[in-house]
Amino acid sequence: MIFTIFKKELKDTLRDRRTLMTMLVIPVLVFPVIMNIFVSVSSSFQEEAATKKIKIGMVGKKDNFLEKELKDIPEMMGPKEIIYYKDTATMIADLKKDTIQLGSFISADFKKMMDSLKPAPVVFYYNATDMGMMERAESYMKIIVTKAQQKRYDELRIDPFTIKPLETSYRNIASDKEMIGKLAGGMLPYLFIIFAFLGCMYPAIDLFTGEKERGTIETLLTTPVARWQILFGKMGVVVLSGLTAASCALLGLFLSIEILDVVENEALLKIIHSILSPGFVLMLYALLIPMTIFFAGVMIPIAVYAKTFKEAQSIITPLNMVMILPAMVGFFPGIELNVMTACIPVVNVVLATKELIAGTLEFGLIALSFAVMVSLALIAVFVSYKRFDKETNVVL
Questions:
Q1: What confidence tens digit (pLDDT) does each residue in 276-313 have?
Q2: Are the beta carbons of 200 and 292 closer than 8 angstroms?
Q3: Fewer beta carbons under 10 A from the terminal one: N or C of the chain?
Q4: Facing residues of 104 across strands?
């Protein structure tokens, strides 16, 4: 009987364009396109910032040391034009107006300090909102300082190695897979949680509040079927919709990588393929299924209580933020899955997924996370049943 109700409600749900858009079209089509546009635009901005011609303001005497050194830097590091100013105030004003992109200042006694083998100050001004300008200044000065140091060593007849007491090296023991999991692993569960929630939302509203508005819920309640069977049949469709949306998000990610060539580095692509293994997908669904049931169990009492579709939507939509905000924990560095975080709903799914991607997950912690989400899912189902069992909430 539950399966019969499930089939009936699933047919009705698949006729709803909003649900189909949320479950299939947005995750599968929009997600890859957005990801591709984001990567393309980001790469374009970075390339433009690194190669575009910039104007460098300079306060100081003409044909000074800094100007000569800047002109000697190859054009492959970005074309540049030097513009002289009488004072820093005018130069800074032009920098704010983007007439120039960098400003520089060398003191009047710059040459004297260089000749006396003392550190000569060079000041660069930049606008932090102009992406890549500070990096350009740093790359220029790195070349200039290296040349000046070597020249000073030659003048003093010093072997650079004799004044270098320590040779420091840093070795990363984390694998590439662990690095991806820790740095970018928060994005994947965040997207799954968003689509799982949205996938549940419209069917939950339509199958409960929508039926009340259409006046068909009374007909269904007069059939010789237990109230809990009706609830479970409808809830099955809501959960399936959420899981389908999350699955389509995973498919959209796969299409982005495989078809749109968002990831061009073959070594990185190989690591991503190793992450998206059948074992990872199974472990991910072990966490997603109880979480989706929990989402459905939270939405259904609201949908049962609401009198109109608009009222249900106005209550559940802000709830989206309450559920999604904990998922942002995955973007914060230093927050690890432990006994405490494994007991926090949604947060535990995000952190467990990060550990899964990195390959550093402890099975005791994922078991605890799974147990917490299953417990919350059961509580949510019980609350839904109690709410659905009240006659005053079910009918208008």
A1: 677 777 888 888 889 899 999 989 888 888 888 888 88
A2: yes
A3: C
A4: 58, 124
